[in-house]
Amino acid sequence: MNQFVPYKAVDREKWGDSVTRADPAPLRRANPAPPLRRADPAPLRRADPAPLLRKSRENDDDEISISNCATSTVTIDARVTDMYDTISTSTYTDPENDALTFSMTSNPSDNYFSIGAGDGIIRAAIDMHTATTLAHKLTVSATDSYNTVSPAYVLYVEITNINTAPSIDGLPAKVFLPESAKAGDTIVVLSITDDGNLPLSPVCSATSTADNVKFTYDSNSDALVVKYDGAFDYETQSSYSITCTVSDGYLSSSGNDVLTLIITNVNEMPVFNKNQYFCVLDEGSLFFGLCDLRREL
Question: Of 44, 159, 215, 217, which has the most beta carbons under 10 Å away?
Fold first, then answer.
């Protein structure tokens, strides 16, 4: 579409009608300037953090101290001291109130006791029914990573009413039993020694587990008895090795209590295998017709 361009009035009397309006020159849109390019931003670099101020040994000259209660000896009763029970609590001071780490050694080193690394509480590491050593020396130390307590705190622990392992008297032994023994017949009476504080559980087992069905333990008589009639047969097996142990639930006997059971032969009455026998004899001379029944015994 052409753009309208105004022009000046023309004196037609002077120039006549030959004067015409010139077409306007077409407008040309100038090319736009190239787009501006954003410069890449300079990468930001995180400044290195200021170094942490670490506590130095030079500015921690205050010593740690550990003190126990009125005495350095503790007595515990094995019958009433369970695992994790508190034995002693360490009382400590650190002027700067730093967090302390505790450690402990024991003589003898039987792991009866443990110490909380963060709280310094000494606890039973076992049920004291299983304890067999009476006296222990515990050496406790603590550190705040810069200072270590000096001297170390020493605690002596004495255990009373200690449990003793039950035992079976009279074994090892060799016992003879006839093959004709009946159910309930005594094989051997177990003589057990114990302090009497805890219930006992004797167990006897043969070398071959298949033989365990032939005998049983009678708690009323403390005896090993035959379990059923015909359990033993000399011709089949003439000896057994039986190991007996007894436990009070915490400690057990040595396990070396072995009973050797010897089955003796009994002269048994012969019997026929059948109620009736049939024998066919040919007619012949006197004393020559035979029917051998011994083969059927």
Answer: 215
